[in-house]
Amino acid sequence: xxxxxxxxxxxxxxxxxxxxxxxxxxxxxxxxxxxxxxxxxxxxxxxxxxxxxxxxxxxxxxxxxxxxxxxxxxxxxxxxxxxxxxxxxxxxxxxxxxxxxxxxxxxxxxxxxxxxxxxxxxxxxxxxxxxxxxxxxxxxxxxxxxxxxxxxxxxxxxxxxxxxxxxxxxxxxxxxxxxxxxxxxxxxxxxxxxxxxxxxxxxxxxxxxxxxxxxxxxxxxxxxxxxxxxxxxxxxxxxxxxxxxxxxxxxxxxxxxxxxxxxxxxxxxxxxxxxxxxxxxxxxxxxxxxxxxxxxxxxxxxxxxxxxxxxxxxxxxxxxxxxxxxxxxxxxxxxxxxxxxxxxxxxxxxxxxxxxxxxxxxxxxxxxxxxxxxxxxxxxxxxxxxxxxxxxxxxxxxxxxxxxxxxxxxxxxxxxxxxxxxxxxxxxxxxxxxxxxxxxxxxxxxxxxxxxxxxxxxxxxxxxxxxxxxxxxxxxxxxxxxxxxxxxxxxxxxxxxxxxxxxxxxxxxxxxxxxxxxxxxxxxxxxxxxxxxxxxxxxxxxxxxxxxxxxxxxxxxxxxxxxxxxxxxxxxxxxxxxxxxxxxxxxxxxxxxxxxxxxxxxxxxxxxxxxxxxxxxxxxxxxxxxx
Amino acid sequence: xxxxxxxxxxxxxxxxxxxxxxxxxxxxxxxxxxxxxxxxxxxxxxxxxxxxxxxxxxxxxxxxxxxxxxxxxxxxxxxxxxxxxxxxxxxxxxxxxxxxxxxxxxxxxx
Lengths: 627, 110
Hints:
The structure holds two protein chains of two kinds. By secondary structure, chain A is mainly α. Among the domains of chain A are: 279-531, no CATH class; 557-626, no CATH class. Chain A is 72% helix and 3% strand. Chain B has a single domain, classed as Helix Hairpins (Orthogonal Bundle), CATH 1.10.287. Chain B is elongated and about 55 Å long.
């Protein structure tokens, strides 16, 4: 029985090997070889992950110690990996969805040079390695290593086409915004070490440790952790990097910026649920931020015309939903939504990649339309993804979103109202996207129309698999009210203590019915509004504000970036050039000038030297005698 | 005789030595002035030695008188050695410059 866990260390190591091989051999390997290596190692990790999952399914958890990472004084941080229900679930998402995206990439990136192709797979494997380390680490320091690693890979992959200046700017923006959040997480770790002298999950979350923390400590630590989560998971105020991150190749957006990395913040909070449950202030903050992000991003998504930007804002919005669930203490629902979202959002990103591929790099949906008859598989799978994210009963998104909505209802009617409204917006903008892109008449050029084709099998098969998962993924968490057992909650019960929301069955039926009806209404509204879509010239009023993303980037630019730049210019011109340089150069000049003057004392006259000596001796005498 | 007279004589000799060193340019004269200063100090030491030997303060500093005498001999021996070295330097200097004027040594200046 223990055999699987003995080779479990291979799960993160295999992608690392893939990274090294692809990275070092990028000039020698052919495209086929790098693709096979890149995907193969992730597949192998996935197979081992499945075996690990079977092992820990029954609630069995194990911490494996490999070596001492930091051992200074009283602080002992081991390189430990933890295999339990939560990490095994994330393992499956990362390696499973990751494998599909690797396969998809072999076709999507086929136009690249073989050197760049291998580089791409090397980065992708490094990302998988870091992400696995993040979820497997058995203490916050190991998690932080993975946390930084995924940030780095995100930067590298967003800036993959580094010859385009805008793309590298987007990469830098993502990296810097992430760093701001990372600082919060790092401070939280330091705080934990200062108070408890340990960062191991088992120690930190034990009742004895929690009792040693004051309320201020817990609130401070959890708030700082949440700052880290807002950076990585793109929440207000640090969300603006995610839409820009769409500069990277589309499979990267699917893997990093939809399915895995951006859910790291949710993983962290779900993992630390013992801490967060004790911090009501933080929970309120999380609810407010999560809800605000969900609503804001959903409103922006309505007016975006770039197919990937719509999906990016949709991701931000869905992440806001997950944080809402975390804030209401409904950790299982958050993890559930991470799972289903990983399926349908990866599906839609890959679908959009397929569309972009067919359109020859065009991303503007105003120039698409009527693509359904040219690429049926992409269209149908994308439609399934839309149904899933909109929360149509029977699709995976319905179960997870409904659970979040029910949790919000238990927390207050207003919260429920906003959440429901956001869900309607979600259905609206997703179907706007679908209808504009896949139905109606083609609005692009003739060459593009001629070029339209269904993508190769390496791209469509992952789409089909993800579409199937988007449908059935929800059935692991069928709520009791619909006659299910909620296997996911039972499975996670050893790790995550979720609050029970006590709604009677009639209320739940009513909530489900209400959201379903309203979602259908908003889908039909989208259908009538966009079935004869013609690109409009200029939007006015609110539409224009939304099109410009509430001017948030501009506000950041003028409130933070520009003052900071002026301050830097001031510091450079005044403090640096006049102050510091003046001091340093002044010291040199003073010595130079002084020496020039003192030089005249060295006359070379022996008599003068003797005279000075006598004067000196006399002075010493005077000092000795009279002072 | 009063000790003050000896002190006055020693100080006078010493001052003459200093002024000689300062104002004269002839190396041999300067050298003699240095000797003059040394001997002024010797004179003072001997005078104080004598004073301590006959004064009641001998109880306080029992070795002061003999120490001073020994010191004087030391200075004389060292001075003798110094004279030999110093005169040798002056001879060498004369061979090089055909002069014993110390201002000729300014040539090291630049």
